[in-house]
Each structure stands twice: as C-alpha cells, then as structure tokens.
C-alpha cells in the first residue's frame, strides 16, 4: 500500500464587508425613529460623543423664547414642588387646540372580554376553567382553531379535568351566545349562521339563514340562478336575502380591542416631505436627529493628562480616549453618509416621477425600477433597495411608501406604459362593467387592446389579482 503527500495551491477571490460597512448597511435600513433611538443609545454609551451646541457668539442676543409661565416654573427647586394647578392649567386661548393625552393600555383583549362576560353569569368554576381553554383556542377573528375533541383531551391531560363531550359542548354554546355575535364559530358558514340567528325575524332573514345553512356552496360560488331555482324564489327576494348576508361581519373578533386610543396611536412617521408650488418641488429630509460632535476633553492631545499619573495609566487612558474618539468619529460619519444617501435616493425618485408629484395623478407614474435610480445616483442596487425599504414620503395629498413609485414597464424597454397605468385602467373597466355580465380576462384583454394597451391575457390575470379582484364568475351580481 503506497502513501503519498501532495501539495496544491489554489487561488480564491472573496469580497467581505468591513464592520464599518456592515454598520452602515444596518443603519441605512433603519426608519427615522429607529435611527433616533440609535443616536440616543450611542450618546449614552460613548462619552466622546455629544450634541453640538451653538456658541455664545453664534447666538443672537434677542434669541430668547422662554415664556413667562416657564420662568415662573423655573423658580421651584424641582418638579415635586410645582403646584398641581400650574401643571394642569390651560393658559391659552379658547381657540387653541388642546391635545388630550392618549392612554393606550386599557382595552380588553378578545379573551378577557369573553371571560368577563362569563363571570357575570351563573357559570361554575369547572365550566369557567373549560371555557378558558376554549377561549384560549380562538384566533384574533374569533374562530376556533382546534376541534372540541382536541380541547377535551387538553383538559384531561393538562388540567386533569374529566368532562364529557356533551358538557364541553354546552360550555362552547355558552361562549357562542356571548357578544360579539358569531364568536367561537367553527368556520365562516357557522359564523354567519350565528349572527343571523340573533337578528330580528323577517322573511329576508329567514331566507338568508336557509341559504347559509343549506346552500352555502352555491352562494359562495355565486351561482345565483341555480340558487334561486333551488329556493323557488324570484330575483328580488334573492337580492334582499343576499344583502342581509353581506351586512354581517365575517371577522367578529376583530372589533374587540380596536379602541379609539388604538386608532389614534397608530400612525406612520414619514421620512421625507415634498412640497409643490406650481412647477417647483421642494424636498426635505425629516428627522429629529441632532448635530453631533466630539466632546472637548476627548479631542485633547496626550499632554493634557496629569503629570503625576504613571506611564502605564497614561497609556491606558490615551488608548481609551483614542478608541472612543475614533468610534464617535465613525458614528458621525456614518450618520452623515446615511442622511446624504437617503436624500440623494429620494431626490432621484422625485426627478424621475416629477409628473406624479406635480399632478398627484397615479396614472402619471412612469416606469421606474431600481436600475433607473442607480443610474441617477451611481449607488449599487442593494443600497437603493435598503434606502427605500420601510421609508415613507409626505406629499400635499397623502403619505406614500417609497416602494409605491417603483413599477415595471409593460412591454419592451422602450415602452413608457407603466404597470400602475394598466392597473388603473383595469380597475376603471371593472368598476364600469355590467354586474350581470362581468368581463372575463379575455374580454378585459380585448378592451385594453382597443384602448391601445397591447398586453397578453395572462398579464391581465396577474394585474387583476394584484388589485385583489376575483374572476368574472365571482364578480357576478344579481
């Protein structure tokens, strides 16, 4: 048996991002509030970093904005000594807008809402424990995610509670009788049926309940002719019954916990603002990021250390100062580079989509992809993708995500028809169609071709699905 040693030489080309580049990429992906939090964290962690203040020579003598009320509050030693009436008084005109503080935490979840209703009934402890398991298996819309036999096994194994299926079913029925109507349903048909049974008995409600309980497949597939024939009713009676069904809520659990405070606290913070004055467009980068600078003691040279200190301690101190100063300098440079990159990318988008910003007409959006912005700015495609992800721009008529402005060309590279324009035309055609005879995808393609848009039927289907519109059979009315 022979053994041999072999020595080989290979060459490999690799590209790796430096830690500084990795940090810039991460910072570029952050939204405005996330960057502000990053700045606050860096100010706390790095003593060499501080917020730049204007010097006395740069501050005008008349630059004094402290109000009389603020001067009076400054006379107190601390906030605890300030009388309550001074903090609560509304010393303003009655025409001024006064913003009430919003307390978000205070609404019950769906589970808490249902359990509170059960506690107000004559339910015993055993049934309440079983009800808790059932409610714990409801999703946010109020539907059961597991079957009663599975929940029965959970009670026996985890809680040591032996119940019969009849007993558990009785507890489930008590939950199904709670508000909101339709909660604890097994599926959509069951949810609609529960809500219909709570409505005032009318001929239309009775017919709607019969449709949901016995002809739900025909209703869901919109086979209205077959449905009317099976029920033996005319078109007007069928239309009234279907209107009753459409008035129901398919997601009853979603209305719990959606308080006014929740709605008021949900908002989008735009990263840019675009103002249009005639043909003039002004772009502003919005943020609350302060100007940062190096703290004075960290910019001093090594001779500033005490002569009495030992050489070793002076060396450690110098190393610490140097390291923190370099970290602070890198952070300031990265922050400045991020802001400049974001501004340049948005400025390129504004130039490319100028017609839209001036007219605010969605059909005026021109075809634009990442490569077009890269050609304008010189940045890599990955940089542009990260710079636009999760960012928003405020315009005179609304707030748009930056991804909204990207849309592919329909046809060849020289075609100036954008997908947004095609989507708007398809929506317009479908909104104006005859509900009794909706357009099929082939008919939509022919209609678009007549209007000068040469696209294939499969492209029409793709755009229709992007609009969230069903096929013609499911759009058919009665």
UniProtKB/TrEMBL annotation:
Pfam families the UniProt entry points to: Sigma54_AID (PF00309), Sigma54_CBD (PF04963), Sigma54_DBD (PF04552)
Annotated RNA polymerase sigma factor 54 DNA-binding domain residues: 320-476
An annotated GO cellular component: DNA-directed RNA polymerase complex
PROSITE patterns: SIGMA54_3
Molecular-function annotations in GO: DNA binding; DNA-binding transcription activator activity; nucleotidyltransferase activity; sigma factor activity
InterPro entries noted in UniProt: RNA_pol_sigma_54, RNA_pol_sigma_54_core-bd, RNA_pol_sigma_54_DNA-bd, RpoN_core-bd_sf
UniProt-annotated stretches for the region Disordered: 34-67
Keywords of the record: DNA-binding, DNA-directed RNA polymerase, Nucleotidyltransferase, Sigma factor, Transcription, Transcription regulation, Transferase
Domain RNA polymerase sigma factor 54 core-binding per the UniProt entry, residue ranges: 104-297
GO aspect biological process, one term: DNA-templated transcription initiation
PANTHER family referenced in this protein's UniProt entry, alphabetically: RNA POLYMERASE SIGMA-54 FACTOR
Family: Belongs to the sigma-54 factor family.
Full protein name: RNA polymerase sigma-54 factor
Species assigned in the record: Duncaniella muris
